[in-house]
Write a structure and sequence with these properties.
The protein is mainly beta. It has strands spanning 2-7, 10-13, 18-26, 33-39, 46-52, 58-60, 68-73, 78-83, 92-100, 104-107, 111-116. The strands form two sheets. Strands 2, 4, 5, 6, 9, 10 and 11 form a seven-stranded mixed sheet that branches. Strands 1-3-8-7 form a four-stranded antiparallel sheet, with no helix packed on it. Strand 5 and strand 6 form a beta hairpin. The chain is globular, with a radius of gyration of 14 Å. The N and C termini lie far apart (40 Å).
Length: 117
């Protein structure tokens, strides 16, 4: 199994920025994809951004495109999410996700991001 630990959440004013990080450990040698999802109060968890480990290909939710950037650090088995121009509607718990073929999905414990207006 893969263990994921997120960091970097916090409180920021609208228009500000935050950088989230997620470190993967355990059986990471076959990582296929890492991603970020988020869950706002009273809403279902939703996809934010993903990166393919082999070629660095990225995909974003329309709501964050142009504001958020996902990147990877292969040496550290880590993924980062740079969040710029934050909006109050970005307030949520952000979860790191990893997929390893043959092992399935892994989730982190989540980190709170709060954007004040």
């Amino acid at each position: 199994q893969v263990q994921l630990v997120e960091s970097g959440g916090g409180l920021v004013q609208a228009g500000g920025f935050l950088r989230l990080s997620c470190a993967a450990s355990g059986r990471t040698f076959s990582l296929h994809q890492m991603a970020w999802h988020r869950q706002a109060p009273g809403k279902e968890r939703e996809f934010v951004a993903a990166i393919t480990w082999s070629d660095g290909g990225t995909v974003y939710a329309d709501s964050v495109k142009g504001r958020f950037t996902i990147s990877r650090d292969n040496a550290k088995n880590a993924v980062n999410l740079q969040m710029n121009s934050l909006k109050p509607e970005d307030t949520a718990i952000y979860y790191c996700y990893a997929f390893v073929p043959g092992q399935g999905n892994s989730w982190g414990q989540g980190t709170q991001v709060t954007v004040s207006s």
